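Try this one yourself first.
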């Protein structure tokens, strides 16, 4: 069985907050709590797909924890009518010990054939030097084909809706 190729160039840029030319960017950062315990809860929620499920995406039961190379097919929609979005995790940062210093944990995944977009998205928990906990989303994308390009306003609306749901879910996970 062959592994499907990513549908965009330069895999892994989301880890550095960079994107290739010609892609639309989505960046959000919201304070969701304070202290190592809140950071650890958020990081675990991100890495175990709770963030995605809380945002209304279906993620298969028993889905492997985010790790480089893990494939996942979250789906967006209502009830049984869902649009699959195949992705593969391209980088992961695990939380460190509670040493009192700043930390960052999360992952980025890239689109595979069958996804309505081409690009990469990252979900990151940050514990800053003062102990504030932030959730960050960084994504770059463009439509996968002419059909999704025609539906661009709907696609943008859906992406913004899911991003708002990620932010809300991150606040619940950290509390």
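Now uncover the answer:
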């Amino acid at each position: 069985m062959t592994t499907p190729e990513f549908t965009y160039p330069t895999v892994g840029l989301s880890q550095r907050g960079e994107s290739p030319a010609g892609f639309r960017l989505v960046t959000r950062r919201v304070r969701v709590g304070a202290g190592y315990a809140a950071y650890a809860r958020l990081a675990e929620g991100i890495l175990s797909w709770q963030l995605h499920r809380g945002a209304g995406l279906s993620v298969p039961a028993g889905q492997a924890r985010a790790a480089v190379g893990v494939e996942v097919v979250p789906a967006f929609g209502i009830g049984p009518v869902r649009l699959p979005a195949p992705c593969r995790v391209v980088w992961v940062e695990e939380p460190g010990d509670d040493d009192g210093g700043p930390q960052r944990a999360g992952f980025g995944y890239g689109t595979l054939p069958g996804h309505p977009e081409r690009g990469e998205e990252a979900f990151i928990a940050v514990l800053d030097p003062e102990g504030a906990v932030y959730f960050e989303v960084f994504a770059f994308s463009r439509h996968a084909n002419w059909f999704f390009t025609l539906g661009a306003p709907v696609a943008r609306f859906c992406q913004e809706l899911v991003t708002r749901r990620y932010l809300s879910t991150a606040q619940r996970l950290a509390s």
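Discussion: The CA atoms of residues 117 and 143 lie 4 Å apart. The beta strands are 24-34, 71-72, 75-78, 81-84, 87-93, 103-111, 117-127, 132-143.
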